[in-house]
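Run log, item B.
One chain of 271 residues. Sequence copied directly from the ordering sheet:
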Amino acid sequence: MNENYSVSDYGIFSDAISTTNKLKSSIDTAQTAYNEVKTTIDNDAVFMGPCADSCVEALNAMNESMTIMTDNFSAINQYLVDVSNAYKSGDKNASQVVLELKGANGKIIRAGATDYLNPANLSGYQLDFVNSIVEGAVDSYNKYGVLPSLTLAQAILESGWGKHSIGNNVFGIKAGDSWTGKTQDCRTSEQNADGSYVQITARFRDYDSLSDSIEDHAKLLTNDRYRNVIAANDYKEACKAVREAGYATSLTYTEKLISLIEMYGLNQWDP
């Protein structure tokens, strides 16, 4: 997407407007001279006879032409002013759109961010869940640089399409000592390095809304611990980085995220 929406030089409009004003001014001067001459010719004591009548007719025709020219230049001048103002207004609006769509990494997410192409023909609660996350996922990228595909895939994987979330916590984020918000204690399964599983009771963050959960997830990934997630060039790198940073204990966490992204086209909102 081209970020340069502005006209390179608005002076082209100013120059054209100045030129039409000068031409109109020249005609105005000519018409003033015409009026002075016509006053003299109309004076029978000064100029009379067939020759005078012919001069008057010629001057009248010239005056009509100059009047038409004046009207035309005025119309051209107003048109140039309107076009210049329209370009300036359009550039201002386009620049604002670019600022709103520019991501934290200086990249740009395409417009129409909430139009899900739905390549796997999702329906029911699964489609509803994706639609409920998309806007927040795009906002997370614009504000913090977290790829929308990663946000969506993690929400789906951690909450089972929203059916097994802890309150509004769809990312399975645990509550550490620094967390001052609401919490819930829940049983969860974690995988050891040897592939075995262990059941533990852990304290998880609980949010007032889904949007709060998405926002907190994005803020978490901006911590230095997850810097490689934000720096990732694509979803595969991001999925690998988030696992390596210790977000989850599952040994196949990266593969699961990538599979979800590719199966359901979740990267369609990535820049």
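Observations after the first pass:
- The chain has two domains: 11-101, 124-269.
- The helical segments are 11-42, 50-101, 124-144, 148-159, 210-221, 227-231, 235-244, 253-264.
Flagged for discussion on Thursday.
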